Structure formats: C-alpha cells, structure tokens
Amino acid sequence: MIRFVLNVLWLIFGGGIVLAVGYGIAALICFLLVVTIPFGVAALRLANYSLWPFGRTLVPKPGAGAGSGLANVLWVVLAGWWLALSHIVAGVALCVTLIGIPFGIANFKLVPAAFWPLGREVADLP
pTM of the prediction? Predict the structure, then answer.
C-alpha cells in the first residue's frame, strides 16, 4: 500500500508524468530515425519505469549480448551522461527537503537506468 501511495505522489509531485512524457518524446524521435529504434525501445522502458518507480527495479535481461553493450556505449556518449546527471541533480535537490527524500531516492534509482538502459528490463520487487 505504501508503494502505491508513493507512486501516486510521485506522479503528481515528483515529476513522474513530466519524465515519462520527455522519455516518450525521445522514443518517438528515435522511432522516426529508424536506425535508432533500439534506443527508442530503451526510452520507452525508461518512460514506463519513471511513471511507477517504487516497488520496481532494473534487472539484467537474459540473452542480452555484446550488441547491447556496444549500443550502451553509444547511448552514454549521446544521451546517457546528461540524463544521469539530471537525475542526480534532481535527486540531490529533492533530498534537501524532508518530504522530498523518497522522490530524491526515486531519482537516484533512475540514474543507472538512464545511464545504461539497454540489456536490462524492469521487474517488480517481491
């Protein structure tokens, strides 16, 4: 029940909707550029994860090979580093206030997802 309440508050006050829309727009752009479709899929995964982060985590995807590792290197160079940095800055800013600490932690959970998204999948926590 606590996870549900935190996720609803995250959607309203923590920026979950804004993050999901931003990642969704990035995914659409990647889909239009055909060559970057794998990055679009990763952006959609990030949009989904950023909508409902409490009670979920990223786990390695079985069968992800060297191709996803090479694509992740390209992702880091083009988008991953500034996405991860923005989540770190937002997390620190939210942790300054007592009420914002859970939302700051949620932003910190999004850092590895934003930095290295390919070859991972979102899984529910037990």
Answer: 0.78
